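INFO  loader      accepted 1 record
INFO  loader      residues=601
INFO  predictor   begin
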Amino acid sequence: MPPDRPLTGRKERTDTLLAALAPDGASTTVVTGLPGVGKTVLALHAAHRAVERGRFPGGTLYVHLRGYDPAGAVGPEQALESLLRALGVRDKDLPPTVEEQAGLYRSELNRRAERHGAVLIVADDASSPGQLRHLVPAHPAHRLLATSRDALTAPDFPARLVSLDELDTESATELIAVALARVSPGDPRAGEEAGALERVAEYCGRLPLALTIAAALLTDDPGLLITALAGDLADARTRLKRLQHEDGDGRSLAVEAAFGLSYHRLKARDARLFRLLSLNPGPDLSTKAAALLSDQEERETRTGLATLARAGLINEQPPRSGRWRAHDLIRLYAAELPEEEDEKEALKRLLMYYTITCDAADDHLRALPGQPVPELFTDRAAALTRLDSERANLTAVIPRAAADHPRVALSMSGALNIYLHQGRHFHDALSINERALAVTRALGDHLAEGTVLNNLGFALYRVHRYDESIDAHTQAADICRELGDRQGEDMALNNLGNALQKVGRFSEAIRAHTEDLAICRELGDRHSEGIALNNIGVALREVRRFDEAVHAHTQAILILNELNDQHNKDQAQRALDMTLAEMRRGWRRWFRWGRSRGPEA
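INFO  predictor   done
INFO  writer      dumping tokens
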């Protein structure tokens, strides 16, 4: 068996394997996971720990099955011959057929169990149950521990699967730091550049193979700053090319090559699905969205997705959720594969799905009680649940759509504003509206520009960038005024006044709110009139025009009560109470000041 290698951050999985290798554990265990996740290192580490504990007095056997080697995998007969030789069978005594070899293998293991005790067989890098079936020991004391990128299951191959994921950030940085210290104990880079080390770990996707390559690049060049390596890896377009290393003997490690070994084993239909998944710019994908991308039925698509998951290229997170995720580096790999002929049409189908989802959900969020809404969602809660599950995809797809489908990008960004603000996803709102503003200006669409500027200004307000919010709302009001869009001007002036109040420009805020109030009355918009009156009252209180503030709040309360808007009515009532309380404090201060002067001489 190969020697034990340093292992970082795998205590829980090591304990799981040690339990499986215990006398009451599973006969066969397969460690699975994506390429480069460290399956072999973990399996060998657990095997050595089990041997140290005296669990396998009969010894250990090791065979490398090269399941993904382009030159061809090790067949069952080759594996059996290798193991039989290790068990002491001479070449001239090796049977000619696989069945006879398997029979002799079981007999030798039974004899070993009776004479010496349990044996551990480690079968590394299997790619199919067929490579392992004949290696499963018949004697209950023995254990077979295998590794595979695929989740190897079959009716006649009962194995326990132990899946392995990427490392957490702390373990990932520790892996690189330990590697540097092992080569040069005095290397100060890990301690001096802790922030850069974390960035390198994240760019490597916390994948042990990528981390090992990064460590090798740093140890090869003691003068290379970790900050410089982080800068090299920051560009997603060249990251996979950078994550490769060749030693002095010509042996190479490359993340891209490791992924390629799994990809090239896929059938054409599954390879096509894998390539199309990269069109989705977000972190995960629903089964329905994948079906639209591939233009297949959902059931057929799920079968293909499950195949990719068994190959270690994607996984369903959480299990049974119908949402599929690929490791960041695998997504980069998929995006660099040759384009599909129908890629543009596939992207259109995906964008249409996301647009319909946004519009229907937005209708639910805007709907008044009793107002009919589209039947895509049963109710408002269902719409919110869908938006929550798709939020990262929706915000990521808008920049993707902006270049070739600008109107789609505008539609989606507009439909997401209420949801993002209600959910307090303010930075997402800021990001999509900045992108949307660039789109409107590229299109020369001033009407849309005014709307987007107002949305952008509100997002800036929510992240406390008030001066920029004032600028955006001022531009929005000017554009809407020029185009005669009174409703747009109404919203822009209302938001402008609120932003002006935040920076203490109360006189200007009063003017903005007063202009807004006039437009609301012109349009007959009683609800907006009530909001405007309350905002005017707040600004008037700040400049100590208490009587006018009380009058404004009182009018607002009457209107909002009439419209059954309890939420905004309560806000207006609180504002009125604060104004009255401030007036009373002023009276008390005046009374005390007057008493203290005393009578004149």
